[in-house]
Amino acid sequence: MIQSAICEMLGIQYPVFQGGMAWIADGKLAAAVSNGGGLGIIAAGNAPGEYVREQVRTARKLTEKPVGVNIMLLSPYAAEVAKVVTEEKVEVVTTGAGNPSAYIKNWLAAGIKVIPVVASVAMAKLMTRLGASALIAEGGESGGHVGELTTMVLVPQVCDATDLPVIAAGGIADGRGAAAAFMLGACAVQMGTRFLSAVECTIHPAYKDKILKATDLCTMVTGRRLGHPVRSLRTPFAREYARAEYSAMPDEELEAMGTGALRRAVQEGDSEKGCFLSGQIAAMVRKEQPAAEIVREVMEEAEPLLLRAPQWVK
Q1: Which of 43, 146, 232, 265 could potentially form a cystine with 25 if both were Cys, beta carbons 3.0 to 4.6 Å apart?
Q2: CA 124: distance to chain centroid?
Q3: Can you list the positions of beta strands (E) in the chain?
Q4: pLDDT tens by residue, 54-111
Q5: How far, in Å, CA of 314 to CA of 307, rounded?
Q6: Which three-class secondary structure state does DSSP give residue 286?
Q7: What is the pTM of this model?
Q8: Which of 293, 286, 300, 285 lies closest to 175 in space, CA to CA?
């Protein structure tokens, strides 16, 4: 079995994180992944603190294993959620879309493992200095908010820049991707899009169907003009947004155009007005299966590929 420092740190069986996908990664999905031996992560997204509290408690009813919460720092409820995770004694907090410096000290004091998502070496070094427990190096192949560097380029540079455990994310969907990440120096992987196909993932059937039918060129990035690029499936909404982005539309109107788009995709399956977040690996997701089976399958595929790297296999 693949052994990893992150497994020892968090008390999980497999070095697999489920990504914190806003309005998608709820308590039910997180619990299923944790029960499968990975780390399930509840996404706070733009939701208020009480929603997050409810999802954490839902997960607690379904699993006794560690569960994490992802906090999107651009959310107007970020400070509220930061307090909730402390009150609910969440084991792990991951962060994205911003700098968590203001919260790290309090989280660490509460015994929470703090694992920020970083998209650059500079941010990795800063989070290391501030006492982060580990880092998620996420390349631009991922869905949702993305940086400029690819996973293949970012992961080894972050590994060289820190002594902390590094989790690789972005463009990973199977054992081959996991094995490649380990060889780059990561000690775990985080997958988001792959878990959209999980039985326990409650996205609208139309969303799941789009993922299962996706091709290699199915995604696009919008939002660069506003400084927060987002990768999603090429839907009528995404194309319309892209046209608006390069028009004379004022920034305020462009911002309003995207408000609520993800929720419409997740809850209504609306491709005309909904944003279907997806990583570039969507074309590699071909069947619906239980979350625990996904975790186990990825690690079982990766292990024989790492036999030439005995430090990972015992």
Answers
A1: 43
A2: 17
A3: 16-18, 40-43, 67-72, 92-96, 113-118, 135-138, 144-145, 166-169, 188-191, 219-222, 230-233
A4: 999 999 999 999 999 999 998 899 999 999 999 999 999 999 888 898 899 999 999 9
A5: 10
A6: coil
A7: 0.91
A8: 300
